[in-house]
């Protein structure tokens, strides 16, 4: 992992004294092509292999984008003989795509819309480019799928949003204000006064 990825993994996965995740929502805002997908792939696969029957849902504004990350996860597994030995099977039916490990962990993908949450409960929801959520319907659909799981997380990966990024902007504001201590915000961006690279947390 790159230094920023390692920092995000360590602190995004912080635990409370009882062993539950400290944060239910983790927001990472980083410019394009800096490793967001790599980081999320590492965390997702680690959780899937270490936690039998883990249920993961990946969504993006276009199903093809969610599929790209899902496919890279499978390629990462197949590149390692140790991991490949634990791979069970994929289902490649359009609109119902998922793969399983032998420990029954499952990773499914959907497009980001009001129907994205159909299909039961999830321990981890990964939202690619949260900035593209222009209303709360997709969020309402997928966030509810984590409510019945005791130690679930929603990971929101995005580059900076704009005025129409209503979900990302409101989650960011809630984190910065301290209104919701279950939200953890990570932002890496250029400083306003020079060209250095910095992290703001």
Provide keyphrases for this structure.
globular; alpha/beta; 201 residues; single chain; 32% helix
The share of residues in extended strands comes to: 25-35%
Query: How are the strands ordered across the major sheet?
Result: 3-4-5-2-6-7-1-8-9
Helix content: 25-40%
Q: Gyration radius, to the nearest Å?
A: 16 Å
- Give the helix/strand class: alpha/beta
What oligomeric arrangement do these chains adopt?
A: single chain
Alpha carbon gap, first and last residue: 19 Å
Number of H/I helices: 6
Which geometry do the CA atoms define?
A: globular
Summarize the structure.
By secondary structure, the chain is of the alpha/beta class.
Would you write up a description of this structure?
The chain is α/β, with parallel strands linked by helices. It is built from 6 helices and 9 strands; from the N terminus they run αβαβααββββαβαββ. It has helices spanning 3-12, 36-50, 63-78, 81-84, 137-143, 166-177, and strands at 25-29, 55-60, 87-93, 96-101, 106-111, 124-128, 153-158, 183-190, 197-200. Strands 3-4-5-2-6-7-1-8-9 form a 9-stranded mixed sheet, sandwiched between helices. A hairpin with a 6-residue loop joins β8 and β9. The longest helix is centred in the middle third of the chain and has 16 residues, at 63-78. The protein starts with a helix and ends with a strand. The mean pLDDT is 89.
